[in-house]
Design goal:
By secondary structure, this protein is mainly alpha-helical. The chain is built from 11 helices and no strands. It is elongated.
Amino acid sequence: MPFLVPSCADLLLHWKEASDRHLLKALQHDEEGALDELIARKSRGLMSVVSRMLGEREEARDIVQLTFVRVWEHRLEYRNRWSPNTWIYRIATNLTIDHLRTRQRRERAMIAAGPSLRAVDSDRRSLAELQQREVEEIFLELVGCLSARQRLVFVLRAIEGLDTREVAAIIGCKVSTVRNHLFVARGKLRRELEARFPEYVPGAPEGSMSEGR
């Protein structure tokens, strides 16, 4: 009986029907088709988280692409007892936090090298944001008051709706730490919103916007 080679269509169907855990195990046998399927499944969710963390979609795309490079490079480290989502999101969020820290160091260097140039750039950016006045833009402006971990917890728990225990597993901390980060983040965001965009604060007096400006 001749050896039958599965068609490309059969392989694609096989990967589409496989569980995330099976795909990660297949990666350990160098199955590139499994990686393609993981990219198709996870890219949108990862983009949502990373772009909210960074505030830049192009930078977010780079981080998501790098995430899958790391998934491939570290495929032999995956263990079946781990949640696939937790393992992949942990790689992505660690890369995002590293990128944020690098960006902050670069911004501090810019401040030291040319404060006047930075001031002009900041004015232009603020003007563009105020002209658009979109909720997403306002959020991205406000989260600058949060630390990298506070921002990560807020995005994963409050926006993406991940379970507190899953967030803790992704970040690598206790559940109580996640709750604390979330409590502090909400307080900071509320204060920033009241100070900078009082018209968006629920229950704010009708005249608060005009009186404060």
